Amino acid sequence: MRLRAGQVDLERGVIVREGRTVRLTPLEVRLLAYLADHPDRDISQEELLQQVWGYAPGVASRAVTATVHRLRVKIERDPAEPDHLLTVWAKGLRFELATIPSPTLGPPDRFVGREALLERVSSDLEQRRLVTLTGPGGIGKTRLAQQLGRRSPQPQLWVDATQARSATDLVREVAGALSLRASSATEGATRVGHALQARGPLRLVLDNLEGALDAAAQLLPGWLAEASDCTVLVTSREALRIAGEAAHAVGPLEAHAAAELFEERLPRGVTVDPSVRDDVLQPLDGWPLAIELAARLADVLPPSELARRLGAADGASSALSLLHADRRDRPQRHHSLYSVLQGSVDAVPPSAQRALTTLAVLRGPFGPSDVSALLGDTGWRDLRVLVHHSLVTRHARGHRLLEPVRAYALEALRRSPHQRAVHHAVHRFVVDAAQQRFDPAGGPPSRADLAWAHDHAADLRAAWERACRSDASQAGILAAALHVLYVNGGPLTYRACASWSTRCSSPPCRLGWRATCSATWPPPGTTPTTSRAPRRRPTGRWPSPRPKATACSRGAPAPCS
């Protein structure tokens, strides 16, 4: 049982306060146990004499007064101004469930961004009685709950459920926050419901509940039914998925908020050029924990060197080995980005882990048809598990992986014996999709085909470079898709496309590339007249053959290429 002065262990008969252990007498233990079993109720001295001392009715004694005085000295912070063991004039004693101070205000550093999400969650908390904040570890769920507590006048009871793994654990944590004593989970659940009802209007915050979601799904409906004025705010990697729940996904920060957070967390005296800052933030993909850990490195690594290391070959993968906490007040689970991701991935079934490593090979977002082609007809089941565990986020055209998650999955794939098979399957998928969507004999591509090509530009280029070394016919197919990207104002440049055609040593591949692209640029070896096609909206029609000349044709330097 937790009191303001310290932690009480009634089984051992001790209270631990201010680093020292104070022993309780057996009579004091019985008195405190009886009072804790009947919280927030006026109890007469006659009742205590009968129930605790075992006296017959009508017996008068000053034993209660003397024992209460000794007990207050041991369990109260100030015996003259008790928090728990109160005297009620002309009635007897009352054991108050004084709220234990909780971290609702959060750390002293400034909260950044998420104003729209704060408004939505605040509105739901006024209308709904169960609200859940979901997202991967380190995405900012706890900080968001703390910020909601700052803005609300409603009293709150904060429960850290990180270690809870069962109904017994969860009841013990909540009962401890309420200063209750329970001998069993069933008895404790009943007492928690009564205590929440006695508190009146109250917001119960269950932080980091992912380890006891099944237990919470069984207990919370009963507690909410018992305590009509209580609302519950849950933070977890996964939603409870029970009736009446309003779930809000906490995603990555927007670009401006990520930049503001990075600047806010930089060590004093360190400044970063905006262009270098953007290079640092790109592989972190708006992940608040990763941004804070990267900012703390700026006093050790120059920002340009930090950006280089984070952006080197699968930059987020490099970030996993770099980003470790040096603050002693940071929770153990947030000491490194790698440990956060490891805990999230280990919580999903092996089939979902294999699906994650396969999807990580794709650089772009993926839709339902992509998932079916890569993972089979039942792949949507593994995708649903990954979405529920916040390892896959929603995208305008389906779903995608945040860069740190993708980097972790790629590292896991490198250690897997199935690495070659997975890469071959993804390569085959990209080739088949390019052949189906961009076959010149099939007519102009649709808007959906062009959008797919823009999303998977990096996948198409990687597959083309691999095909140039092994399969000329596949290289020609992929060259056609890259050509469509070029002439529709995609991320590829005129000069880059021309240079790629010269790099392909296989004659069939070069012939296929030149046959596909000859309408828009000169044969390999000639000087192109422009470096970039004009950016155009996809129209579904084949574009005009030759783009306008730009500064590159007048000898502009390398940035045009």
Outline of the structure:
The protein is of the alpha/beta class. It contains 24 helices and 12 strands.
Q: How is this structure best described in words?
A:
It is elongated, with a radius of gyration of 32 Å. It is of the alpha/beta class and 561 residues long. The strands form 4 sheets. The protein has a 5-stranded parallel sheet with strand order 7-8-9-6-10, sandwiched between helices. The chain has helices at 26-37, 45-53, 63-75, 115-127, 141-151, 167-177, 185-199, 213-226, 255-265, 274-281, 288-296, 303-311, 315-322, 337-346, 350-360, 368-375, 379-388, 403-414, 419-437, 447-455, 457-470, 472-487, 494-503, 507-517, and strands at residues 7-9, 14-17, 20-23, 85-88, 92-95, 130-134, 156-160, 202-207, 230-236, 245-249, 393-395, 398-400.
